[in-house]
Amino acid sequence: MTRLLLESLVRRVALVVLGLIWSPPLNLAAQAPVSIGPGQRVRLQTRSSSSWVIGTILAVDADSLHLRLSDTTSQLSVKRRAITRLEISHGMKSNAGRGARTGLLIGAAVGVLAGVAPDDQSYFTAPQRALLLGVGFGGLGALLGSIIGGRSLHERWDRVSLGEARVTLVPRGASVIVSFRL
To answer: SS3 for the chain, per residue?
Structure first.
């Protein structure tokens, strides 16, 4: 009896380990697909061209996407089967945070280096000067970095599934249910 329990336990552990190994790619497949529709800003690549085509969706039908190209009034229809990559815009984002972090690190490093330099006229020891100047220059660098980074904007894009095959793994008792979806 204990042997049967042990075998059952080993099978379950093996299934859990298998599920954990496969879970990262399968987790992505389990997420709800992103829908596309009129008014969304997209960029896409086709089989005939690897350069990005950027525009706003006017209409979506069974076999085509109809776009108004960016910065023009031109319209374009692209067959879905010709699209090799499709991404949706999630708006513009500034680099203020990244600039602040970079400025902080550079400013603090300059301050620490200036603080450890020999100075016979100072009331502070070298470590005290390094700390004070590191904090001061780090703060100034963070402020300047956030101002400079805030002026630099970039667009955030997320890839949209083009209907690839999806696999779902669902444990059921001592077995596993595998389902495929196109």
So the answer is: CHHHHHHHHHHHHHHHHHHHHHHHHHHHHHCCCCCCCCCCEEEEEECCEEEEEEEEEEEECCCEEEEEECCCCCEEEEEHHHEEEEEEEEEEEECHHHHHHHHHHHHHHHHHHHHHCCCCCCCCCHHHHHHHHHHHHHHHHHHHHHHHHHCCEEEEEEECCCCCCEEEEEEECCEEEEEEEC
Structural domain including 61 reads: 34-93
Number of domains in the chain: 3
pLDDT digits (tens, 9 = 90+) for 130-176: 999 999 999 999 999 999 988 888 888 988 876 654 556 677 777 76
Q: Is residue 140 located within the same domain as residue 182?
A: no
Last-in-domain residue among 74, 93, 112: 93
pLDDT in tens, 22-45: 555 544 444 444 578 888 999 999
Tell me whether residue 158 is in a domain.
no
29 and 42 co-located in one domain: no
